[in-house]
Amino acid sequence: MKRSTILLGILSLSLILAGPLPAQDKPLDTDSAKASYGIGLNIGRSLKRDSMEIDTTILLQGINDALAEKEPKITQEEFLAALQKMQAAAVEKSNPDAAKNREAGEAFLAKNKQRPEVKTTASGLQYEVIEEGEGATPKETDLVKTHYKGTLLSGKEFDSSYGRGEPAVFPVNRVIDGWTEALQLMKVGGKWKLYIPSDLAYGVQGAGEDIGPNETLVFEIELLGIEQPKN
Question: pTM to 2 decimals?
């Protein structure tokens, strides 16, 4: 969301400097007018560069509503969800791999969920239990110790604590959403196989050299224990 943060910062600055935006052109004969116009150019160029299909009339409506301190017509959550979808669509438009990976992931998950041993949660996360645990179930704020291996749908391994010869320790709420959800369903001693849709993994941005945009990921994960935080 780095670009959206920058965009919001630019828009906020424009509210301070420019005041309500006019319905028609005004002369650029003062420093305030020139600065306001320049800010508008930067916003427009940013939107153009990001291939964002923005309705400028509604954009101005939002700015003027903010200046008039009117009640927002949408929530911040609705705004961010819509913005994320538009950013993802823009990336797919410019990167053929993003659309290809998304379609491949959706096809795989649709077929995989038909297997009787695979369970699907409301979020779209899929998992199968290899070994049931008998210990406690971690909370979102807990620190856990795990062994895991992560692969792409092609079978290519991109990460493995087994390969490093050392378990990984991390907070449950500091990993990808698919892991955070799964760990709160597992019991210590359990071993699961996770099938994580891209929107619960690294999304359209991907990660590193191996995980491309919109990749569905597969993990084998063992929950070894719940750790005590270090003082």
Answer: 0.69
Q: Between β-strands 217-227 and 119-120, what pairing exists: parallel, antiparallel or unpaired? A: unpaired
How many CA atoms lie less than 13 Å away from 76 in the CB half-sphere?
Answer: 3
Q: Which residues are CB-contacts of 81 (< 8 A; sequence separation ≥ 6)?
A: none
Q: Let me know how long the chain is.
A: 231
Q: What gap in Å lies between CA 138 and CA 144, rounded to an integer?
A: 7
pLDDT, one tens digit per residue, over 110-129 is: 999 999 999 999 999 999 99
**What pLDDT digit, counting tens, does each position of 60-97 carry?**
888 888 888 899 899 988 888 888 777 777 777 777 89
How far, in whole angstroms, is CA 176 from its chain's centroid?
Answer: 9
160 has pLDDT over 90: yes
Contact present, 187 and 134 (Cβ < 8 Å) = yes
Give the whole-angstrom CA distance, residue 144 versus residue 92: 35
Query: In whole angstroms, what is the distance from residue 116 CA to residue 128 CA?
Result: 9
- Partners of residue 147 on adjacent β-strands: 222
Task: Pick the closest to residue 218 from 96, 130, 87, 95 (CA basis).
Answer: 130
Distance CA 61, CA 59 (A): 5
